[in-house]
Each structure stands twice: as structure tokens, then as C-alpha cells.
Amino acid sequence: MPLALLALAVVAFGIGTTEFATMGLLPQIADGIGVSVPHAGNLVSAYALGVVVGAPVLTGIGARVPHKRLLLLLSGLFVVGNIASALAPSFGLLFAARFLAGLPHGALFGVGAVVASRLVAPERAARAVSKMFLGLTIANIIGVPASTALGQHLGWRSAYWAVAVIGIIALASLALFVPHQPRGRQSGIRHELRAMGNKQVAIGLATAVVGFGGFFAVYSYLVPMLTNVTGISDSSTTLVLALYGVGMTLGTVIAGPLTDRALRPTLYAGLALLAAALVTFYFTVHSTVPALVTIAFIGAMGSLITTPVQMLLMAKAQNAPTMAAASNHSAFNLANAGGAWLGGLAISAGWGWTSPNLVGAALALAGLGLAFTGGLMDRDSRRSEVVASSRAEHSTEADQVTSAQ
């Protein structure tokens, strides 16, 4: 089990590195292919859109494929997408390559989360899933800063070559350590789509899109914010990104046990504290030390949201959790694209480099409202079930009395 979780964490490490490395190398990519930095920022959206499309489509296509085999196929596609990114000679082809690299992202995380949760006892499922997500957060400590530094010194293409190598290592790890998990008799695209019709699944996905959009509204512009407002040099931004990753890792570590114990309260607290941290960063970004402390806290609160949303969707989808788990990452990448877009609009409107913090806080609070709505609906649903059960019991007792008479 530990080796299988480690293999899944390696996959998450590669995904986290390729997803966020582009953000740290936007100036170098823009210079290399002859476009402006804002135009190069569309590459971030290209990857995100690939995730949005790929998660439901690839999960649906592979609905009857055994989980291990599907993980291997998706990892192979991940490697191909990053090699294509490294070789792309123009912006158009690089845009297409980033879209291709993003296609397996959500399905890999979705299938991986289901596999991880089934490796342990049900009461430890969230901890197992959070261990897989540790690969994503450690990528922000090691993978993203290393790939950013590599891209700054050896050219941006070298970062994508490095990610392709990580993908090959992940592929080998999955083949060696992940056990075979057969599909159930009810597996199939119709079964998965039927589970996606649950209202709680829809609200959970909306919570991820809106609430996590607040995180990405700031993260997408963190490097220019630090260099233009805080006064941190370009060479030091890799260390700041590593600090961000430390915060994300700490948030992921505590998210597993907290989610196993109290899922919805963990989600509520994460969104509320994320909003508070983003408002705080609006003021602390002007001073180096307070800014760094706030950045670490933002990373922690952003990661604290991930595990409870993932487990909520898997629970509400019941016997068909794979597409719901994968679609969670479509939702996160819609948040990526939407948050980056809204943050960019605020900057373009002349509100200043710090304005994405307020945009992000508003989105986090809106996500909290959606999460509360889902919680209230869940509570009402349970009350209805209790009332219906009670009425059924009374009806049975009455029938027994009547028959006895």
C-alpha cells in the first residue's frame, strides 16, 4: 500500500510541476516565441481547458477499463503532451501541446483518488487520498521552483523535457507498485453519468470552480505581484514559490485527518480562512516578511479545500465515483482559467497589481456560500429520510395491530 500511494504521488508530482511551471516561465516563453506576457498567459488557460475537456471525456471512454491499465494509458498521454510542448516551434502549436498535456490531468487524479481510497479502510480514505495529493503540493516546493530555475538558465523548453522524464518515472512506478483493481459489474459510461446527475455533486463542483478560483486569481499573478510591488528580484521568486509549496503541503497533511473526522466543517473553514488570507495579502504584499508569511498561509488554506471537496464528490456519487472525482479537477482548472482571467481583468482595468487579492477573496466567499447551500440541502435531505423512515415504521406497526384485531 505505501509503495502504491508513492507511485500515485509521483504522478501527482509530475502533474503539479507541468501545471504550475508555465506560470513561473511566462516571461521566458513570451520572449522565446515572440508574444507578449499576457498573450503567453493563454497557455495557462490552454492547459486548464485540456483538463476540463479531458476529465469527463477520457474517464467516460475508459469507464470499463481496469483502473491500473487506465492509469498507465493516461500517464503515457501525459508524457506525449509534455514532449510536444518542448518541441513546439510556434505559439499555436505550443497552445495545442499544452491542451494535449492537460487532457489526462483530471482523469489521472480522479482514477488515482478512487484507487487510493480503496487501498485502505473506509475511515482512512481521505488520508490516503491526501497522501496522493502530497505529490502535487511537493511539486510546488521542488518541482515548480526547479523547473522555473531550469527554464530561466537553460531555456523554457528544458522545463517541459524535465517533466516528460518525471512522467516516464511515474509510468514505471505505476506499473510496478499499483495493484490490479477490477471494475464492478455496474461499471460503464451510463452508470457514471447517472451518478453525475446528483444535485450534491453539481453543487460540489460549483464550489470548487468558484471557491478555488479565488486561489488562482492570486497565484496566476504572484510572480509579477512580488517583483512589482514587494520588490523581490526575479532570481528570488523560485524560493517564494517553494515557500508557497510548503504551505500547500502543510495544508494537505492536515486535510486528510480533518476530512476523515469532519468533512463539511473542514471545507467551510478552508474557504473562510482562504478569503481572510487573501484580504490580508492585499495589505501585507508591500512588506517582504509579512508577505512571505501570508503566502505560506494562502497555500495551506488552498490545499485544505482540495481533499474535502474530492471526498464529498466521491461520497455523493456513491457507486460511480470515478467521473465525479475526475470532474473535480475539471472544476479546479475552470477555477484556474476563470480566476486568472478575472485577476487579469482587474489589473487591466488599472486597479493595480494587488487587486487580484480582493477578486480572489470575493470568489472564496462565494464558494463558501455554495458549500453552505450544499450542507443545508444535505441536512434537509437527511431529515426527510428520517421522517419517511419514521412514518414507514408507524405504518407497519398500525398494520400489525389491525391484523391482530
UniProtKB/TrEMBL annotation:
The chain crosses the membrane at residues 42-63, 70-97, 103-121, 133-154, 160-180, 201-221, 241-259, 266-285, 291-313, 334-353, 359-377. Residues 2-379 form the Major facilitator superfamily (MFS) profile domain. Keywords: Cell membrane, Membrane, Transmembrane, Transmembrane helix. Its main location: membrane. It is found in: Cell membrane. PROSITE patterns: MFS (PS50850). Residues 385-405 are annotated as: Disordered. Residues 385-397 have a biased composition (Basic and acidic residues). It holds the Pfam family MFS_1. It is a multi-pass membrane protein. This is MFS transporter. It comes from Streptomyces aureus. The lineage of its organism: Bacteria, Bacillati, Actinomycetota, Actinomycetes, Kitasatosporales.
